[in-house]
User: What shape does this take?
Amino acid sequence: MKLLLIIFLLPFTSTPIGYRELKWSDFKGKPTNDHAASTCTGIVIEKDTAYAIFEPEKSWTRTANPATLRHEQVHFAITREYAILISNQLKYGWGFEYISKTLDEWGDKEMQYDKQTDHGRDSTAQRRWEEQIKL
Assistant: This one.
């Protein structure tokens, strides 16, 4: 998982993908470390809404393993959960300090997910996360 992006209407290097089931063909980037795959997700924040995106050119894979793809999908689902939370905060007029705290929590949850699942290698922990997070 590439450390998270926060996007405030900045131009994209490629067309981002809104939340949906990912396919390995969506991963178009070049590997940047020794992991099996990396997903670059972000939250686009507009005036009164927020939504999750996946950036194909910044996401990559060295494998076609379905279990690894499920691991990457959960990263995207976590991003979606926090985008929904931020969208609700915007609708209720919560200030930037609340949104900033939520963004920090999002980053913490992504790191916790990778740590607890050992980047998807711990299949028992991975199943628990898949049950917790709505894909």
About this structure: Strands lie at 5-7, 17-18, 37-38, 41-45, 50-54, 60-61. The chain has a mean pLDDT of 90. The two ends are 17 Å apart (CA to CA). The chain has one domain: 5-132.
